[in-house]
Write a structure and sequence with these properties.
Blueprint: H1 3-17, E1 20-27, H2 31-41, H3 46-54, H4 60-78, H5 84-87, E2 89-107, E3 113-129, H6 130-145
Antiparallel strand pairs: 1-3, 2-3
Length: about 150
């Protein structure tokens, strides 16, 4: 591995250590249905997002709720001694990527067969604190003025 590539890999690794996220891979729900639920919680405060997911009647909301709880647990591990209520956590991003598609055959009339696509997806939820975001914006403004 070259020096530039190694340096860039180290930068990415350090950046990920300051992020709080959880990933659900190969979820057997179509990406289109999962995006409806993921878009519903983007930019929303964490407790409100959990309530929205809990009372949603979509099947995908149960999986996203569990994923959000996992992201919160990851935040707690990296911030020992900090309280969730004081942290002012919110869902920074939630995005859905398409995963593998299983191709199946269903019998059809007159000896024919129809192709069925069973889609799956990858879901990523990133949470952050509002205070940290505001501090970063202030630092960037100060650097731009200097």
């Amino acid at each position: 591995m070259g020096a530039r590539k190694r340096n860039r890999a180290n930068q990415n690794k350090e950046a990920k250590q300051s992020q709080y996220y959880a990933v659900l891979r190969n979820c057997p729900t179509s990406p289109r249905k999962m995006r409806l639920v993921a878009d519903m919680i983007k930019g929303v405060e964490v407790n409100k997002a959990l309530d929205m997911l809990k009372f949603s009647n979509k099947e995908a909301s149960r999986r996203v709720e569990k994923l959000l709880l996992s992201a919160i647990a990851n935040w707690q591990v990296k911030n020992e001694g900090a309280r969730i209520e004081e942290a002012d956590l919110y869902v920074k991003t939630a995005y859905v990527d398409q995963s593998r598609t299983l191709k199946r055959i269903q019998p059809a009339p007159q000896g024919r067969a129809h192709r069925i696509k069973k889609r799956s997806n990858h879901v990523t939820v990133v949470i952050d604190t509002r205070n940290q975001v505001e501090e970063n914006e202030v630092v960037l403004e100060q650097e731009n003025q200097a």
